[in-house]
Amino acid sequence: MKRNFKYIFVLILLAVAVISWREAFGRDRDKLKFYMLDVGQGDAIFIETPSGNQILFDGGQDRKILEELGKVMPFYDRSIDLVILTHPHLDHAGGLLEVLKNYEVGELMDGGDSYNLAEYGELKKLMEEKKIKYEVARRGLKISLDKGISLLVLAPDKLIKSDNPHDNNVVSRLSYGRIDFLLMGDGEKGEELKLVQAGDNLESEVLKVGHHGSKTSSNPLFLEEVNPEYALISVGAKNRYGHPAQITLDNLLAAGAKILRTDIDSIIEFKTDGDSLTLVGEK
Ligand SMILES: [Zn+2]
Q1: Pfam families from the entry (predicted)?
Q2: CA of 88 to the centre of ligand 1 (A)
Q3: pTM of this prediction?
């Protein structure tokens, strides 16, 4: 009898835990949630659509991604629908290895670059072992993420033979109603100007600033086209590259953007119903 009570007590505790997690994560069901995670020096963006489809862009450089995902995903959710690697540099690809080991990933997409990074090789191997669907991102590819929500790939338009993975960096624009997020990966000035010259509609409420706010990105001509309300910089505190550059911060401010940085603001979270955009936690 005593034992039965123990079991019942544990069951009640479990039920309470599940209900409170559902409460915490189940609100705003009609909203798209966008998180720029705080992975230190690197990039990682997690998106959840109103129907619960989950997309992860890059995974930072190491296991920290697991900690960060744990903050935005309920503990019982062990799958991610789509993982997009913008380019195989360690600070974007390293953590994805941990993601593939710890989550069931539906599909992986990248720019098709066969860059010689040990972790990237391991990632590809693991992808094959786990039989994860693989797709190369190419300009013009439009992925429907949910009703009224799409992701349009703007770059690369073809595979460039190069030692620099930034030459095959994936750029995409996430659109929900009148709200757009431009995700630049490590896109630099050359890539920005190419997009401007192609006449793409770049106007976006949120710009994920290219290459951690380095001085080689965020050209004023490009910023004029994007006209961002918010500029997000994913950067490690006191990183050895000196990111972000003062000139880039000045350019972003001159373009009228509010700057948010993971080294100062930690996780940056937006919610949108496709009409209005809310920066969660803004006072
Ligand atoms: Zn890079």
Answers
A1: Lactamase_B
A2: 7
A3: 0.90
